[in-house]
UniProtKB/TrEMBL annotation:
PANTHER family: SLR1343 PROTEIN (PTHR38657)
Organism (species): Psychrosphaera ytuae
Highest taxon of the lineage: Bacteria
InterPro entries: Crypto/Photolyase_FAD-like_sf, PhrB-like, Rossmann-like_a/b/a_fold, UV-DNA_repair_photolyase
Protein name as it appears in the record: Cryptochrome/photolyase family protein
Amino acid sequence: YDEIRLVLGDQLNAAHSWYKTKDTKVLYVIAELKQEQEYVTHHIQKVQAFFLAMEKFASALKEAGHHVLYLTLDDTEKYADLPDMVNQLIDQYLPKQFCYQQPDEYRLSEQLKNMTINCDKSCVDTEHFYLRHDELSKYFKKDTGHRLEAFYRKLRSQFNVLMDEGEPEGGKWNYDSSNRNKLKKDDLKAVPSPLLFSNDVSDINKRIQRHKIKTMGTGGDTLLWPVTRTQTRELLNFFCKYCLPKFGEFQDAMTAKLPDKQWSLYHSRISFALNSKIVSPAQVVNHAIEAYRQNSSTISIEQIEGFVRQILGWREFVRGIYWLNMPDYKTKNALEASRPLPDFYWTGKTKMNCLSNAISQSLEYAYAHHIQRLMVTGNFALLIGADPDQVDLWYLGIYIDAIEWVEMPNTRGMSQFADGGIVGSKAYASSGNYIQKMTDYCSDCHYDVKQKTSNDSCPFNSLYWHFMTQHQEKFGNNPRNAMVYKNWDKRSDMEKQEVLERAEWVLHNLDAL
Ligand code: FAD
Ligand code: SF4
């Protein structure tokens, strides 16, 4: 072969220009590697999904006439790591050139960049995102607070997405205020059951066992996540038909009372297919906009704008934050948080109904929607002052879509405020009040969401005040917190002391909650 081209597990982009021509002198290498299973403990469904999607991608490339070497864990166990594998393959096939696509993860990017090999080496863009990797520094600066809204508007204009002669379609850039409702009792029956796939992963399970790969969560011999382009298209069609009409409206809702376990509500569950690059963000956005244009009586501008904002906005935004701030971002701990995460994050066994629901669902499906991640598990970890390294590892392991470039700015930045305000201007801290407003969890909880100090008081309530007073010096100057501190100051010293004492008790008894 003249050239070896490496395809990483999250680079399954069949539309890449690499594949436009068939060249029998080019060998594509796709490999299951132990190093990728061991940098964090992954959810078993995440390992299954990546391996199966990689296998299917390799088969599709072969069918299209490309030369592909697919290496399973059995084949790669003899290699120490990725550079060792590449070096040995180069010795074996003697190519003139080794080429790879720019990894999205800093760790892999450094590993490939710093590797010395016996032939020419080159790196190309993944051709997946709206912005090329080498353009990011035009939009983002290191250690600088950036806000989504300005970036999102810039990209909407630049890529002419939902625009009408230079103005945002519908007249507004942002429809958040009409979205984000609670699911009421009468709404529950109408929530669609998720479209699930039945992919056979029995052979992959055997490999996972044979190589003693440590995993978390549950997973059987069939995988419900989409692993091919065809399945992804089916999921996207399903989403546009049944979920998009209510996507924005119920984007933040959470409930434990669904009659048919419709666990993903109106969300798309497209994140694995996107992050493994089976589908591109532009394909998803254009498909959804097309559905909106053809069904404007059922899909309103509020719904489509809410969806586009997540992908063209948030997804591209966190990627820029990640790349301009790595590797320092990984060590940021602005609130000097150091507490271990309680054991129930790995079992779901807690009397707090909101956490028990969000964690159990995550263990069962490798999935929770954004607000479950941000306002339940993330909020609790923030309030107890959990070590951001541990919090990152938990999120990086448990979710089907977790890859560091997107996981870390969301977790360490948006959720834990450990970046001191690079991603968001304010910590997403809240008492039980928010959870009660957005969910039906509290009515069936062991704890009383209205109480702050009693033995059965909702732990979020006292922890919230403990957290806000502990960081008053940092947060007090932010005008968005002015009301919070005014409220606190109105209370008697006695009341303040009781709340803080309850919080101390909670912090010392996390595993008993
Ligand atoms: P939908 O609600 O249907 O949204 C559509 C798509 O928009 C998603 O698939 C995703 O690609 C994109 N999107 C939405 N919100 C965000 C966001 N904040 N950042 C980036 N993209 C977004 N997302 C990941 O893809 N990987 C992660 O590891 C990850 N970790 C997170 C950790 C925390 C603490 C938080 C608060 C959020 C995290 N998110 C992560 C963002 C978001 O929760 C998931 O993208 C979303 O829940 C995936 O489900 P979905 O496909 O049904 O999303
Ligand atoms: Fe969660 Fe508190 Fe509500 Fe219980 S009462 S579900 S712990 S917010």
